[in-house]
């Protein structure tokens, strides 16, 4: 039984890497490169036109970075898998990509066979983060959370805690709405509920208490 090759869109702002990587993938029978894009904005348009199964996404790009592009792409096209391919090994970048909805994360030094395996896995609905990064993600989630951050506000729902975390990080209601894909009215309601449950006089008091509890970092 033969399988159709996996349609892949390559997104990277460096032309030499983008075209070279696309040429490498095009030489592999299991993969069909449907197109390339140089920015996150171009990527969103290309997904609409070309309907790839998997997007291989760089992180650092002009106009819209790969994390934000991934977040929007996954929201608009949840059936499309995203593999982030970047030079960055920083934990913040890794976890931002995961939170944005990426189902794969590989470093640009990965062997071609590893990249192909990642694309195949993500196309099939799986998740892959490479041996080194997978170990670090497992270690992160194995660490016990700080008691103050998880028990300080037991009356809050998970969503309210998430909103409070973003408020404590200094985000406005509009920014929180964009980050969580909610309406500003819904965010205002969550913030009001948080202030009520915390018996906080205002947003500033809630921020101080949240940061003391380890939120907003």
From TrEMBL:
Positions of the HTH luxR-type domain: 149-214
Key words of the record: DNA-binding, Phosphoprotein, Transcription, Transcription regulation
Modified residues (4-aspartylphosphate): 58
Residues covered by the Response regulatory domain: 7-123
SMART domains: HTH_LUXR, REC
One Pfam family linked to the record: GerE
Protein's name according to its UniProt entry: Response regulator transcription factor
Organism: Nocardioides jiangsuensis
């Amino acid at each position: 039984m033969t399988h159709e090759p996996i349609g892949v869109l390559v997104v990277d702002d460096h032309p030499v890497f983008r075209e070279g990587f696309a040429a490498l993938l095009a030489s592999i029978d299991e993969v069909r490169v449907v197109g390339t894009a140089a920015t996150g904005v171009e990527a969103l348009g290309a997904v609409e036109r070309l309907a790839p199964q998997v997007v291989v996404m760089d992180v650092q790009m002009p106009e819209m970075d790969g994390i934000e592009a991934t977040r929007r792409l996954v929201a608009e096209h949840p059936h499309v898998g995203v593999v982030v391919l970047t030079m960055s090994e920083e934990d913040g970048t890794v976890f931002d990509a995961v939170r944005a909805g990426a189902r794969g994360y590989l470093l640009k030094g990965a062997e071609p066979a590893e990249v192909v395996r990642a694309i195949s896995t993500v196309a099939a609905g799986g998740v892959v983060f490479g041996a080194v990064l997978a170990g670090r993600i497992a270690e992160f989630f194995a660490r016990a959370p700080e008691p103050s951050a998880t028990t300080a506000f037991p009356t809050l729902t998970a969503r309210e805690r998430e909103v409070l975390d973003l408020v404590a990080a200094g985000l406005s209601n509009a920014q929180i709405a964009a980050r969580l894909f909610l309406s500003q009215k819904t965010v205002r309601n969550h913030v009001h509920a948080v202030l009520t449950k915390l018996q906080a006089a205002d947003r500033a008091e809630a921020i101080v208490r949240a940061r003391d509890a380890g939120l907003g970092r």
